[in-house]
Amino acid sequence: MGILGLGMGLGVGSGCATYSDKTESMRELISAGQYEAGLAEVNRFIKVKDPVELPTKWKSETALAVLERATILHAMGSWDASATNFQAADEQLEFLDLRSSADEIGRYVFSDAATHYRTTPTEKLSLNGVNLINYLAQGDLDGAAIEAKRFTVMRNYLLDYDPEHAHGAFGSYLAGFVAERQGNPDSALRYYDEALQERELPTLIEPIGRLGQRGSYRSERLDRYLGGGGAGFPAPAKEAAPAEAASDDDEPAQDPAAPIPVADANPAAPNPAEVLVIIKTGRVPYKVPVRIPIGAAIGLAGAFVTGNTALLEHSAMKVVVFPDLQPAGNLFDSAEWTIDGYPVQLDLVSDLGAEINREFDELRPKIIGSAITRMIVRAAAAEGARAAGNQGNEVVGLLSALAIEGAMVALDKPDTRSWTTLPDRVWIGRTQVPPGEHTLEIVVRGSGGEERRTAQVNVGPGGYVVLDVTTLR
Fold this sequence. Notes:
With 473 residues, the chain is α+β, with helices and mostly antiparallel strands. The protein has 16 helices and twelve strands. The protein has helices at 3-14, 19-22, 24-31, 35-46, 62-75, 79-92, 102-111, 121-136, 141-161, 169-181, 185-195, 205-211, 220-225, 294-301, 352-390, 394-411, and strands at 94-95, 118-119, 274-281, 286-293, 319-326, 334-339, 342-344, 347-351, 425-432, 436-446, 449-459, 464-471. Helix 3 (24-31) packs antiparallel against helix 4 (35-46).
């Protein structure tokens, strides 16, 4: 093969579309708020027409595409269809152990794109957590409880292998709400304690105080919320000063700290009438192939490089190609809500984008180290070909070295698969309300301006309503 032919061969090998390339149109449509069109794009990817139709053959990217479809359906409020897709994807997906060696990580990231996708800890727990919302939004506590058990099994496993990092705070919070509604105060307190491992959550002050009267489970974190003292106790929003006498024609005061007027509440009552709101904004960073100079890559990889880096001085390839995270370009990053015109506390419960970044920060040196190690192996093979070819002709030796190194590079494509539609941030708000009809307004804001949604809900005595608003923008 001549030099021109070699260049063409390398172009074909390195031009294969990655997962992030294949799903670019879907992400652009979602960013524009065109969920139906984004759903159609995923269906074409999976090669089906109906959003609940599952593939007959599960290839290396199929389960991940079904996971993306489940998320889009969730954002559209198609709870049953979303749950079906989440469950089907969950059965096919594998788990990526972040403790694996650089060699093992490298084989998966660079060579095993033909295998099923392996979720990170954050992705795995988020799958169960988001699917739990599918059931809560329909008032199906039994279905939500089953998903909560799946979430708990995986979370306990993750704590055993990575006790230093808590994951899935929003899933723990919602599992606690399910247990609370099913009359299991100690289980609810345990779940709320898990959620508090990651950050303080003022919306849990009232529920924990109420559950503490009926349950016996305690922890240092819960004691702060039960009035046991201790630094860091999250003070609830101050109550508004009493309003001056007003005529019947006056509008109700809209002080930001004003409490919602609630009928006489009985603290010992197992379940007050309540509204719980879940707001999810944006999408987490996703993987794309990036190139950095070899020298910079060696500095980032540190001890994870195996082999003689001096061999790379003669390599034709002067850059390292590996998958790295790219921001999703989210339009919204903050949220608030009101009920009947009264502002209500809203907690940022999970910052999934930050969790994804933290996980990848742990993996990145191993990935780069593996990429450099593979380059050293290629360089050694190329040097061998060069030496053999030089016995007859230096040009033949050079071409032989380039051909071998180029062919190996063409086969070594970084895997950019990741859950690209996973929401970036999860907010939860809740409040007791008088039974009856209420008007909820949800507002998300960011660089893209603001988006408002209004909903009418009817809460029965001792009942609840869960409202989910997801904007993947």
